[in-house]
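Project standup — Tuesday

K.O.: blocked on the structure for the chain from last sprint. Re-posting the sequence here as requested.
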Amino acid sequence: MTLSRPFLPLLLLLLGNVVNMRAQQVSEGKIQHFPKFDSKYVEPRPIAVWLPEGYSPKKKYAVLYMHDGQMLFDSTITWNKQEWGVDETVSDLIRSKKIRETIVVGIWNNGSKRHSEYFPQKPFESMPQARQDSLYASNRTNGNTLFAAKVQSDQYLRFLVYELKPFIDRKFSTHKGRAHTFIAGSSMGGLISLYAISEYPHVFGGAACISTHWPGAFAPEMNPIPAMFFAYMQEKLPSPKTHKLYFDYGTATLDALYEPYQQKADAILMAKGYNAENWQTLKFEGEDHSERAWRKRFHLPLHFLLGTPKTSRL
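H.V.: unblocked you, prediction finished:
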């Protein structure tokens, strides 16, 4: 498949990008940087921990883990000069008491290995070996390989659960339980968020899967990957009695591919007993696949997952 020029920036987004390595700056709250967080499971990477205004060790905070951490706070260091505006949006919602007080942990992606770390491993390995080999070998665009390494999302999740979360809970004043621990991401980050809550339902109580890249690759035609994801969901989705799931998608650029896949995912969620109390899927007409678009609607998954008792449906 040859991508048209407008889709080339989206390829960079999916594969990971070189960014300015200086510390991120925020306009609200404060941020603590851990520039080289070591792991026995994955390669070291920067971690950025955002703390709300007035953070105090005398209080306890919910924690939101977010993928693609270099794109969250500071557009001056990002490859496309866009950001999620996480500090502004979370601060505004805390101030207005629409969500509980929350810490955000931004986990930087691993550049060219982003796809390998974010692609759900068990669905990938459920495909015939010949299909796995063809994906490793043939998904090339303009000289780039879709997978720069073997799929290693199980290792990435072990890093989150067994190394990063314990560190955050030791260093910061957090509510440690599932009911206060959430995970979120966009595109491939949406897939890995869904995978995380399904593999570790005792750790994560909610996931926001924004502009989820259901195709897993770039060729939607004759693509067996989404079927593998859906089979996995049928087997492994966590209980709607104890978990919340948020999905959304736009209708422009790469997001234009997603609606039929999302409808199939929604049918599985309904069959599993999810309803308006614990699941949302939203469509945003005309919105594209970019941080600019995600910033505009980021308050919605935050409110759905982290809403205070007076504002949340749960």
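K.O.: great, moving the ticket to review. The first strand starts at residue 30 and ends at 37. The beta strands are 30-37, 45-51, 62-66, 102-107, 140-141, 144-145, 181-186, 206-210, 244-250, 279-284.
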